What we know:
Blueprint: H1 2-18, H2 22-32, H3 35-56, H4 60-66, H5 68-73, H6 75-84, H7 88-104, H8 129-143, H9 153-167, H10 179-201
Helix pairs in contact: 6-10, 8-9, 9-10
Amino acid sequence: MIDFIFTNILISAVLSVIAPSEKQKEIRHFNSLPQIEQREIKETEKRKRIEFDTKSNVNLIKNCFEDPIFCFEYKPLINRIKENIRNEVFATEFNNSFKSSFKNVKFGCFCRETFDPDIFPVCPIEKSQLDLACQKRQKCLFEHNQTWINTNLKCDSEFVNYLEKFKKGKYIDYDKFDNESIELYNSQKLKSLIDIRREITK
């Protein structure tokens, strides 16, 4: 009897190693897919999660600043945040998350809280539309005695308009994610953050 039980346990152990679980099969199948399909699946899963959270009125700020580009385009999430922004604790968390997200977007010499023309041997400003736009925003804010994370109607409007023209007809290539795609991604992220703040505070 003991031998029989031991044999069954041994067989089960061997089979568990040989025969993959359903979860393991799913992972193997996912990993075998092309990158573009993997990304589409992840985006779909993310959207479902955010849709559920938005309806449940949870994780609103986290979901928004995790992907500002998606957040601004997904109006139900923006509307939920607007409903909650009257709450002082929520408003404080929103403002802190915005500042943190805006600071974390760094590109070139001028797209950063403390710009530094000497951070690179040669600033990309000569070839980068985004770095040039950031330089103009830094100058505009300085003239109004404000800093990178502050908001200013004139400076932000000029900045956003410039970025709109820059991205026209261009698309982020997430597979290659070359210098042009990185520049475009960061420009859209900065624009989306400013648009989010405008929409929530108007």
